[in-house]
Amino acid sequence: MIEKNYQPADIEARMSVVWEDSLAFKAGRPDRRDAVPFTIVIPPPNVTGSLHMGHALNNTLQDILCRFERMRGRDVLWQPGTDHAGIATQMVVERQLMERQQPGRREMGREKFLERVWQWKAESGDTIINQLKRLGASCDWSRERFTMDEGLSKAVVKVFVELHREGLIYKDKRLVNWDTKLLTAISDLEVQQTEVKGSLWYLRYPIEGKSFSPEDPTTFIVVATTRPETMLGDTGVAVHPEDERYQKLIGKNVILPLVGRKIKIVADEYSDPEKGSGAVKVTPAHDFNDFEVGNRHGLRRISVLDKEGCLDLLDNEDYLRDLPEGAAQFAEEFNKVDRFAARKRIVERLESFGFVERIEPHTHMVPHGDRSNSVIEPYLTDQWYVDAKTLAKPAIAAVRSGETTFVPKNWEKTYFEWMENIQPWCISRQLWWGHQIPAWYGPDGKVFVAETEEEAISHALGYYVEQEVITVEQGREMALDRNKREGFITRDEDVLDTWFSSALWPFSTLGWPDDTPEVQRYYPTNALVTGFDIIFFWVARMMMMGMHFMKEIPFSTIYIHALVRDEKGAKMSKSKGNVIDPLNLIDEYGADALRFTLAAMAAQGRDIKLATSRVEGYRNFATKLWNASRFAEMNHCAVPDGFEPAKAKETLNRWIAHESAHTTREVTEAIEAYRFNDAAGAIYRFVWNVYCDWYVELAKPVLLGPDSPAKDETRAMVAWARDEILKLLHPFMPFITEELWEVTAKRDGLLALAPWPLKPAEPTPEQLAMLAAAAGPTDPLISPALVLPIFDHADFTDPKAEAEIGWVIDLVTQIRSVRAEMNIAPATLTALVLAGASTETKERAPRWTDVIKRMARLSDISFADRAPDGAVQLLVRGEVAALPLKGVIDVAAERTRLDKEIGKADADIKRAESKLANEKFVANAAEEVVEEEREKREAALARKAKLLEALERLKQAS
Fold first, then answer.
1. What is the pLDDT of residue 888?
2. How many angstroms separate the CA atoms of 876 and 416, rounded?
3. Which residues are in the Valyl-tRNA synthetase tRNA-binding arm domain (predicted)?
């Protein structure tokens, strides 16, 4: 018995237990032994995380695919897990220690600190997993993985060692994004560009051999900089090779102010003649662009900042080399001064010597750490790198050849741009939480990379015996006695970038590097669903690692979803206070309503503008289905054994079977093409408009009438169509559909495992051969009955039934529309004249007269050769239906009203177009504000079009 009121919270809790107890989502179920696998790996959320709207969208779309394919008979593995999230997790635990006034990590030591992190992970690490379950994610939770599980860690070490052996991992001194607060390198993804109001300093650099005078421009060259404190590390000045102002100076030297070092003027196209003075200082150790300029011209790299962002001058051999006499005193004065304090003092010193030409206010983007919020420094340091350029080549080729495709396809351009211009990937992080780099250093700094410490010791002893640093006897003793080799080699303290381990996710989670049955069966995966912001950081790296180690693409389709923004189109952020918490929405409206909202708005390539009202609207949609199911139950609607909808005799019932088949094809094709919004839109229209508003309403006279064969058939068809709805809607709204299936369908088995309504066709011999070739060596021959997705789209159709019921619906709909446009009160009944009606219309109209009169508020339906004078004419499926409105409405008053409304629409259009034509407004206003004006214009144009149509109809009634 269906409860009177729809209560999502009760249903969700109950159904979650049902699914879990029945192992509904477990991959490799015995009943799917012969089924074709379908695999998706979840983008592993940070173990520190909680469900945000991006997670909700991403996992809803994955779940739709998984539930859809599971119902199509596939052996679905949706691989869940979490990421250890190096910096984020370490920060959480360090903050806890500080808040509890406990010793910090350095006081605790590495081993004790890591014990504390693991303890925190055990206590809090499952938060987001439980929240994903609340969303309804149908992962195989028995296979949950963590990037620092023993098996995954084994894969990480093997990959590092093999890539190092192949020369694809190496150590190098390069610039990195350095967080001076966290004291570690960070990835580009962890850098946020923040607009800052600062200054642009124009500095005079004296030309060598000329007596410097601030009044004589021939004695100096002017450079513009936003960072005067880094000038101490300048090793060049760059000018454009075609800039006539500096042609004679190229190759000459300038004297670096305050420091006295001679630095060369070089010609490089990086310098823009149109910006500033056209000359730029080159500081290769403190700017990414300058680093490249320095490489092109062989300029020295002089780092003048330490890890904490203070000037490092006094014991800095690179800085002190080649300095003129007396410059060391300056180094002593400014040593260990914070970079921002140093900036102020250096500018004061430059001004006192006449080296500052002018200072201008300057707004520019400054990189900040997304977690520390400190200004990020380009910092020259020794780090471990991956030769990403070499690894990228097969990954680029796989997308170019179509082995892997992006949806939407335009993201391939972004992928190619990044991959074809890829830089070495910095994989080392100065943290403790993470995969410690499997590298050990000998007493002379020699590096030994190995999978275990024992292996590293073995390599080291062999090397140092050969180099005669130790004797053969010492080597033997050290190999046998740990105490004798204590401190002989030291492990690298750094850990690997989190993206390194997550790059292996599609195969490390399946048990690789062991040759497990899971690797054989579920790799490569089918689809990856992710956001555009990690195409480079995660997607591209999975492609590189998958191609290199598995010799196969990791996934055949990459679906890129857009952002979820607020209802005005603004990006959600805590600072703006516009963040919408998905868990609050689930509490208030239910997980099904949130899921359907996200799916219905997930148009390819378009951001989602999420309004709470939309979620509330889809909660009402769920209630509509609930009430329709209750109505069916109360009217004893049930599907009898052996019922075949194709053999229905009643036109109305054959029509709903026809519409159901059409919707099934529409939903199926849309999900296959990753058009989630189209699929959701199709099922929404079918449930709300076709089934509830029309079919049930048109069936009521039969259901509420006397017993008859027609009533029996209609009861069966109402229940059958409801069950088809539950199947089609299940991937989108799993909780309510599973509940209604259990209560009303009265069948054995879960809806989650029920067959999808569209049956597969028999495969061709070519398709069978292709699938057999794709099967792993341990897989049985794939059963033809489970070859998916190959469909027979020639399902049930009845054009005659559609023509008849479609005519009734279109007629009633158009009459209702005219009544609304003309402000005809519901109590006022109007006549209808069917003018020049065809034989079919003359036959069908009497069958539906009572229904049409009731639903369209008509007093009478009659036939005539032509439409009467003063009647509004409607074209319904090629035939004229006329509404005589003379005397029913005040034509003059109605025309005045419509003219007034058209005037309002014109004013709204003009106002919006005026703003959009203003280049300043479009350039300076927030993106969401501009978009809002566009939407206002489009809404006003649509409103005006409808009003003009109503006005034209009104003329007919004059």
1. 80
2. 52
3. 890-955
The closest of 462, 490, 486, 489 to 476, measured between CA atoms, is 462
Computed over its alpha carbons, how large is the radius of gyration of the chain?
Answer: 36
Residue pair 873/818 in contact by the 8 Å Cβ criterion: no
What's the full length of the chain, in residues? Answer: 958
pLDDT in tens, 776-785: 433 333 443 3
Positive or negative, the CA dihedral 761, 695, 594, 928 is: positive
DSSP assignment string, 622-671: HHHHHHHHHHHHHTT----TT--GGG--SHHHHHHHHHHHHHHHHHHHHH
d(CA 507, CA 613): 41
Torsion angles phi and psi, residue 248, rounded to 5: -75, -15
CB distance 458 to 397 below 8 Å: no
574 among the known binding-site residues?
yes
Q: List domains and CATH numbers for the chain.
A: 8-161+497-589 (3.40.50.620), 187-369 (3.90.740.10), 439-491 (no CATH), 613-753 (1.10.730.10), 799-889 (3.30.2320), 893-957 (1.10.287)
**How many distinct helices (H) and strands (E) make up the chain?**
34, 29
Q: Among residues of the chain, what percentage have pLDDT more than 70?
A: 95
The burial of 859, by beta-carbon neighbours within 10 Å (0-12 exposed, 13-18 middle, 19 or more buried), is given as exposed
Look-up of token digits 């008849």: 804
Percentage of the chain modeled with pLDDT above 90? 74
Q: What is the DSSP string of 299-325?
A: ------B-TTSBB--TT-HHHHTTPPT
> Lowest-confidence range among 357-366, 481-490, 501-510, 558-567?
481-490
Whether 388 has a pLDDT exceeding 90, the answer reads yes
Structure tokens at 809: 């619906």
Q: How many CB atoms lie within 10 A of CB 749?
A: 13
Q: 668, 640, 684: which is closest to 755 by C-alpha?
A: 668
pTM: 0.87
Helix axes 927-956, 891-917, angle to 10 degrees: 160
Confidence check: pLDDT of 902 > 90: no
- H-assigned helices in 26-109: 53-71, 86-99, 105-108
Which pLDDT score, from 0 to 100, does residue 747 have?
67
Q: 720 with 744: CB under 8 angstroms?
A: no
Give the 3-state secondary structure of residue 218. helix
| 522-558: burial string, b at 16+ Cβ within 10 Å, e else | bbbbbbbbbbbebbbbbbbbbbbbbbbbbeebbbebb
Phi, psi of 198 (to 5 degrees): -135, -145
**799: preceding bond cis by omega (within 30 degrees):** no
| Residues β-bridged to residue 555 | 525
Cβ atoms of residues 200 and 276 within 8 Å: yes
Residues contacting residue 662 through CB under 8 Å, at least 6 positions apart: 797
Q: How far is the C-alpha of 732 from the C-alpha of 64, rounded, in Å?
A: 6
pLDDT in tens, 12-71: 999 999 999 999 999 999 989 889 999 999 999 999 888 999 999 999 999 999 999 999
Judge contact between 723 and 745, C-beta under 8 A: yes
> Would the pLDDT of 792 be above 70?
no
Q: Locate 783 and state its tokens.
A: 């059963």
**What are the C-alpha distances in Å from 705 to residues 193, 628, 635, 708, 795?**
70, 18, 11, 9, 32
- 3 state DSSP class of 762: coil
Largest Cα separation within the chain, whole Å, is 118
- The Cα-based distances of 262 to 253, 321, 331, 350 in angstroms read 6, 11, 17, 17
Cis peptide, bond prior to residue 206, ω within 30 of zero: no
